[in-house]
């Protein structure tokens, strides 16, 4: 027992040092929190990808503690399609988001959305005190497990069950809000429940954003330099949307209108995916190889619209599409503007959410309304 405890402590120290060296942890308060909270108490069983394979670990297994303190997401739940629906998030992303939190004052609670196994809530409790942390999870089973994990670690935040996209009105207002699941747009409920002067830290599309709350619920902020894509928000415990592979077969064979286009970028690059996720939060995107040729697909199931691009080495592509929405025409201007601006990183972009809910992306003096 002593060896295991010492080993966990040393591995935790190394993780904190690495996060500090990488610039993810910058403040002594958050370094102390990550050094104090034992991550292994929150993930007695999990799976993670290693060399393309999904490997399951249980407490006591060889390599378990090393896996716990790796800089990886540790998945603790899957839906019927085999898609991960809950995890202990990548510590680097957790640290970056924690450092971006800026509560309005020292009295109001902080809202943690997406409790999962409870590790992030424990970090918040260590930083702000259990009495200032409210955490919400859509799945009651996860809340029950998280309650045990948090108690074992010595923390007692307010645990609630419900749809995190609606915030948690029962304990509002909040000084700040952090959400560790992916969303396409910032819900109005979040802006309503965080006081002016506080902030919202969230994963929108493939980006991490820190938004400051102003008057009348307006919010504005800059994207963080690091890209990320968390598990998408679930509004019910049993939500299990079909994965991209369920649509890919039809999309690569369907007939549509065709044309030749200039392709401004590699569509599989990180920034094109980031910009695409902001333009199209409700569009499924995939890449496959057909007859030894790469094919990039965009599908909007609700409108039965799709676009299929087959890139060539000379910078052109064959575009085929169908449906009431011209998905490529909606996305292409963002990509062209990015290229014209010199291909900057995500932190060159700011996002403003106006009081009426309209989202506006900006790059310098250039602005783009997000549908």
Walk me through this protein's architecture.
The chain contains 10 helices and 19 strands. A hairpin with a 5-residue loop joins strand 3 (74-78) and strand 4 (84-88). The chain is globular. With 371 residues, the protein is of the alpha+beta class. Strands 7-6-5-8-9-10-11-17-18-19 form a 10-stranded mixed sheet, with helices on both faces. A 5-stranded antiparallel sheet has the order 12-16-15-14-13, covered by helices on one side. The chain is 28% helix and 33% strand. The longest helix is centred in the N-terminal third of the chain and has 20 residues, at 2-21. It folds into 2 domains: 2-227, Vaccinia Virus protein VP39 (Rossmann fold, 3-Layer(aba) Sandwich), CATH 3.40.50; 245-340, Double Stranded RNA Binding Domain (2-Layer Sandwich), CATH 3.30.160.
CATH fold-level assignment of the largest domain: Rossmann fold
Q: What is the N-to-C succession of helices and strands?
A: HHEEHEEHEHEHEEHEEEHEHEEEEHEEE
Q: How far from one another are the termini?
A: 56 Å
Total helices: the number is: 10
Major sheet details: 10 strands, mixed
Low-confidence stretches: none
The portion of residues assigned to helices is: 25-40%
CATH architecture of the largest domain: 3-Layer(aba) Sandwich
């Amino acid at each position: 027992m002593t060896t295991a405890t010492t080993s966990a402590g040393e591995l935790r120290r190394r993780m904190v040092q690495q996060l500090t060296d990488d610039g993810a942890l910058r403040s002594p308060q958050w370094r102390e929190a990550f050094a104090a909270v034992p991550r292994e108490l929150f993930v007695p069983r999990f799976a993670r990808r290693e060399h393309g394979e999904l490997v399951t670990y249980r407490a006591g297994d060889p390599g378990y503690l090393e896996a716990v303190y790796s800089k990886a997401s540790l998945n603790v739940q899957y839906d019927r399609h085999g898609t991960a629906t809950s995890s202990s998030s990548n510590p680097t992303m957790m640290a970056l988001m924690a450092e971006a939190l800026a509560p309005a004052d020292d009295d109001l609670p902080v809202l943690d959305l997406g409790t999962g196994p409870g590790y992030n809530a424990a970090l918040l409790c260590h930083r702000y005190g259990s009495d200032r942390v409210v955490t919400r999870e859509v799945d009651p089973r996860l809340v029950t497990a998280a309650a045990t994990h948090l108690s074992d670690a010595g923390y007692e935040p307010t645990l609630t069950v419900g749809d995190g996209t609606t915030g948690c009105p029962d304990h509002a207002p909040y000084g700040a809000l952090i959400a560790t699941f992916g969303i396409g747009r910032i819900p109005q409920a979040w802006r309503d429940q965080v006081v002016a002067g506080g902030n919202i830290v969230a994963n929108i599309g493939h980006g991490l954003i820190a938004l400051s709350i102003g008057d009348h619920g307006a919010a504005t902020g800059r994207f963080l330099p690091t890209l990320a894509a968390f598990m998408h928000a679930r509004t019910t415990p049993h939500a299990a949307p079909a994965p991209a592979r369920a649509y890919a077969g039809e999309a690569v064979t369907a007939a549509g209108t065709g044309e030749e286009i200039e392709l401004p970028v590699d569509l599989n690059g990180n920034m094109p995916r980031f910009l695409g996720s902001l333009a199209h939060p409700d569009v499924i995107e995939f890449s496959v190889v057909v007859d030894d040729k790469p094919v990039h697909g965009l599908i909007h199931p609700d409108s039965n619209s799709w676009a299929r691009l087959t890139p060539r080495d000379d910078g052109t592509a064959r575009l085929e599409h169908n449906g009431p929405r011209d998905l490529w025409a909606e996305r292409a201007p963002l990509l062209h503007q990015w290229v014209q601006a010199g291909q900057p990183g995500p932190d060159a972009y700011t996002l403003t959410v106006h009081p009426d809910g309209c989202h506006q992306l900006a790059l310098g003096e250039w602005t783009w309304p997000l549908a």
